[in-house]
Design goal:
Layout (H helix, E strand, L loop, with lengths): L6 E3 L2 H10 L3 H14 L3 E3 L2 E8 L2 E11 L2 E11 L5
Length: 85
């Protein structure tokens, strides 16, 4: 499933949390799309955890697949890492 094919289901509470953390729907779609295409994700108790580095920021998304192309977002967070010489 590519990031263009993903429909997100996000509760108001999670949406507010994501806004506070500065995480956009587009970022979440990229993380999930990449995880699903490459199979690079962790699975536990009906939930997946995926990560993706976009520029200098690494995003983590916890989600469930409701049906093909639709994902419920449980939470997401990110961090910035830079290396200086």
């Amino acid at each position: 499933m590519s990031s263009q094919e993903i429909r997100l289901q996000i509760s108001d509470q999670v949406k507010e949390l994501l806004e506070t953390r500065g995480i956009r729907d587009e970022d979440i779609e990229k993380v999930i799309g990449t995880a699903e295409e490459k199979g690079e994700k962790l699975y536990r108790e009906d939930k997946y955890l995926a990560k993706l580095k976009i520029e200098e920021r690494t995003f983590y998304v916890e989600y469930s697949i409701v049906e093909e192309g639709t994902c419920t977002i449980h939470t997401a967070y990110s961090h910035v890492s830079t290396m200086e010489e």
